[in-house]
Structures are given as C-alpha cells and as structure tokens.
Design a protein that fits this description.
Strand content: 5-15%
Oligomer: single chain
Radius of gyration: 20 Å
Largest sheet: 5 strands, parallel
Helix content: 25-40%
Bound molecules: iron/sulfur cluster
Shape: globular
Structural class: alpha/beta
Order of helices and strands: EHHEEHEHHEHHHHHHH
Distance between the termini: 66 Å
C-alpha cells in the first residue's frame, strides 16, 4: 500500500533562548512517532538538512526585535499553511520586552562598547503583532505535553484541547496545598495561565507567572493580596514585569504599581 503523504513541519527561531525548541527535542519518547506522522523538513536546531518550503505546520519560537526579524516573519508566514507560536517570547515578547519600558538606546550604550553596530527595534513584540497566528502556546518554556497536544490536534484536524484556566486550578486538581494561604508565600498562580501542572507550588514556592496571564482573572485583587503579604509596589511591578512583561494584562497591572 502506498504510504500516505506526510505534512511538512518547520521550526523557526527569532529572538529567544532556544529553550522552547529544546522542549521539542525533549519529547524523546515521542519524537520517532512524530517523525512517522510529519516530515521534519526545517528544524536547524536539530538538523542541518533543510527541505524547501512551503510547510504545512510551522512552530515559531522567539520575538520580533530587529528590522530584519520584522521582514523575515512575513516570509515565514507566506511559507506556512498553519503557524503556531511557542513560548513567552513568541506570544508576548518575552523577557527581552523589558526594553519596551525604557529608552532602548540608553540600554544599548550601557551593554555594548560599540552600540552603533547594533541594529535593533525599540521594542520586543509577539509574533501575532506582525502576522496572523493560528494558535499561541504559552510558557517559558512551553510544556512538552501541551506541545504534543498541539501537534496531535493538528494531525487530527481539531482544535487543541488546551484550557485557559489558571495555575491555581492545577494546584486544586493535583491536591497541592496553597502556598499563599498556608505559608503566606506570594504567588501569581491565581492569574497565571495553566500548563505547567502547578510545578512551582508543588515544590512549596510561589508561581512567578512564566505562562503569562490566564483568562478572566482579577489582577488588581491579587495585587491587593500581595500587598497584604508585605510586598512593596516596586516588587509587585517586577513580579508582573518578568517573562511576560508585555502581555497586555501583566503589562497593565505592573504599570499600576510604583517602579
Ligand atoms: S519562552 Fe522562555 S524558554 Fe522559550 S525561548 Fe523564550 S526565554 Fe527561552
Ligand atoms: S508554577 Fe508558575 S512559574 Fe512555575 S512553572 Fe508553572 S507557570 Fe511557571
């Protein structure tokens, strides 16, 4: 029986640490099965063998930080039938979006001996701010399990079964004792997107929001709780302005507190 045509997968990198691409490679037990279903056609972190586009499914890591990025993502979009962004960098601009709140030229002069050689934008922005995106997968890095769900859903022709509830719900589902209530530990779990399985609270530490904002949450109410636990305005601002500083909900709540 002739083998059915497998869709072609491409994985692209923009401004990022490569951690989300490593999450793909971390699917050790599943990679062979993925290779049975998809042609891994363009994934230079994994192989220098690159097949030409167009590609059926593209996973895009990283944010747009340079004029070159801003042009390149348009070509990536043209080459990709379905485009999924993976990780905090690609979905909200990442930690590098901290530049959005400062004078980036001043920062360049502090970091680089010859800043005139650096060609960069004043902001770091999500891929969706530049081209249409079919699905956004959050996390810093993304969850391997959610990544496999996105790929499986693509192959099955359905919407990924990924909810938009908070890390708080994941704590309740796994029976983890609330670190805020039981220990007075500041935690962003009540407003952070689920996906990690409440990893940090399960080790008795607060969530620091690496999956970005969840849907339908009350950030000012959480900030009020953080104040009651003794956090200053500058600490609350820094808590929201980390990996997902430019995610609109976290950006707004961070700016509501003194730097
Ligand atoms: S989201 Fe986090 S792990 Fe992924 S590329 Fe960006 S910094 Fe790295
Ligand atoms: S608990 Fe929060 S900070 Fe820790 S991995 Fe999960 S989302 Fe990230």
């Amino acid at each position: 029986m002739p083998r059915r045509k497998r869709p072609k997968l491409a994985v692209y990198k923009f401004a990022s640490c490569d951690g989300c691409q490593l999450s793909i490679l971390d699917c050790e037990d599943e990679l062979l099965a993925i290779g049975e279903e998809l042609i891994i056609a363009n994934f230079t972190e994994a192989s220098s063998a690159v097949l030409p586009g167009p590609y059926d499914l593209a996973l895009v890591e990283g944010s747009i930080t340079t004029p070159h990025d801003a042009e390149r993502i348009k070509e990536v979009r043209r080459q990709s039938k379905v485009l999924v962004t993976i990780g905090a960098c690609a979905t909200s601009g990442g930690i590098q979006a901290l530049r959005n709140f400062r004078d980036h030229k001043e920062m360049l002069s502090v970091v680089y001996a010859r800043p005139e050689y650096i060609d960069t934008l004043a902001t770091s922005t999500a891929i969706a701010a530049h081209v249409p995106v079919d699905f956004e997968l959050r996390g810093c890095p993304v969850s391997k399990h959610q990544l496999l769900e996105v790929v499986s859903a693509y192959l099955a022709g359905r919407t990924p079964a990924i909810g938009h509830h908070s890390v708080c719900i994941e704590c309740k589902m796994r029976g983890t004792v609330c670190v805020m209530v039981a220990h007075g530990t500041p935690c962003l779990g009540p407003v952070t997107h689920a996906g990690c399985g409440a990893l940090c609270p399960s080790y008795t530490r607060g969530c620091y929001g690496c999956f970005g904002p969840s849907a339908g949450t009350n950030l000012p109410a959480l900030s009020g709780g953080l104040v009651k636990l003794g956090m200053k305005g500058s600490e609350i601002r820094r808590a929201f302005h980390s990996f997902n500083a430019a995610a609109p909900a976290f950006e707004k709540e961070g700016l509501a507190h003194d730097d």
